[in-house]
Fold:
Amino acid sequence: MTYIDAAMRGIKIDSELFTQVEQGRLKEIIRELLIISSCPGEIWKGAPCRPAAGGVGLCTIAQSCDDCWEMDQEGVS
Ligand SMILES: [Zn+2]
Structure:
C-alpha cells in the first residue's frame, strides 16, 4: 500500500456531518493537500522525508511530494 493510500485509509470523516458525496469531495481535497504540503516522513518515522524534518532522505523535494507519497509503505517502522 502506498503512503497516500495508507493515510487516506486512516482518515475517517463523520457521516453525520457530511453526505457520501461531500465526504468524497473532502477526501479528495485532503489527499491533494497532503501531497502538496507534506512528505510521508513528516508523519511516519523512517518514511521518505524532506531533509529539514530529519527523515531518512529519498525525498524528491519537487514542486510537490507526489513520488514520495506514491512509494510503497512496506518496511516502515
Ligand atoms: Zn517528499
The chain has one domain: 3-69. The chain has a mean pLDDT of 85. Residues 50 and 59 are 5 Å apart (CA to CA).
